[in-house]
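FAQ

Q: What does a record look like?
A: Structure on top, sequence underneath. For example:
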């Protein structure tokens, strides 16, 4: 699978995960979100994407949903920290959808 961004072809896995994490960009995120059935990325989407990327770069691993919810609560308040909220923005959830759009590695056991 491939995505074309600004005239550059970027390799994605068969399931749509970024092959080379260094190639991630906000423009690529917009392309990947189309494959995830998200019409557009709003500020709320970007808050989650940027937080997921920050946590990955700080810890070297993709945050699991429960831990991510705790950080969301601390950063954005209770209303934006539960799984229902995340699923309302990312139909297949944090791990499978938001992290894919954020250009993070596919966690073990995730298709």
């Amino acid at each position: 699978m491939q995505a074309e961004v600004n005239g550059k072809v970027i390799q994605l896995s068969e399931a749509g995960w970024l092959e080379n994490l260094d190639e991630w960009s906000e423009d690529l995120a917009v392309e990947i979100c189309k494959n995830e059935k998200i019409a557009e990325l709003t500020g709320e989407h970007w808050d989650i994407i940027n937080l997921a990327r920050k946590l990955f770069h700080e810890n070297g691993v993709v945050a699991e949903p429960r831990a991510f919810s705790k950080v969301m609560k601390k950063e954005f308040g209770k209303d934006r920290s539960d799984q229902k909220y995340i699923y309302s923005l990312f139909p297949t959830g944090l791990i499978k959808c938001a992290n894919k759009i954020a250009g993070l590695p596919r966690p073990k056991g995730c298709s």
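Q: Is there anything notable about this one?
A: Residues 2-101 form a domain with the Arc Repressor Mutant, subunit A fold (CATH 1.10.10.370).
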